[in-house]
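Homework help board

Subject: predicted structure for assignment chain

Our instructor gave us this sequence and asked us to write out the predicted structure in C-alpha cell form, then describe one feature. I got the C-alpha cells but I'm not sure how to describe them. Can anyone check?
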Amino acid sequence: MKFVVDASIWIDLSIGDLIAETFTLPFEYAVPDVVLEELQSMDPGVLRACGIHELTLAPDDYPLLRELISRYPGPTTRDLTALVCALRDGMALMSGDGQLRTAAEAEGVRVHGVLWLLDRLVERSTVPPSRAADSLEAMLAAGARLPQAECGRRLAKWRT
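My C-alpha cell output:
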C-alpha cells in the first residue's frame, strides 16, 4: 500500500521514536515537499535517509487544490496539498488532522492514522507491545490529539 503522509504523523512518530521502524513495514510513504518543509520539530533528512518519496504539485494540480480549499476551509493549504497528491497518485492518506481526514473521506480517499500504524507495528512484531505503549504515551504527553478511548484500549492491551 502507498501512503501520502502528513506532518502530524511524522511528528508523532518522531516523538515516539518510531521513524526507522515505520519504514520496515511493507508500505511506501510519500510526502509533499511543502509538508516536508513544515517539519520544524524534526530533521526532514531523517525521512529522506529512510527513503521517503517527495512529491511536488504540477501546474495542472493547482485547479484541484483551489477547489479543495474552497470546499474544505478547515485544513491548511499544506494539508490539502497532501490530499491533492493522494487523489492524483491514487494513494491512501495517513493523517492525524481531523479536518483533513474528513475532507479525504468525503473525496473517497482511504485514510489511516498513527494508531492504525502502531497496530501494524505490533501485529508484525516490528515493535513489542510495551514499546508501542511507551511510544503512544510519549505522543500523548507531547500533546498529540488522539481519541482517548482508542488510546486507552491500546495501552491496556499493550501493557498486559
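Reply (TA_rk): Your C-alpha cells look well-formed. For the description, you could write something like this. The domain at 2-114 is CATH 3.40.50.1010 (Rossmann fold). That's the kind of observation they're looking for.
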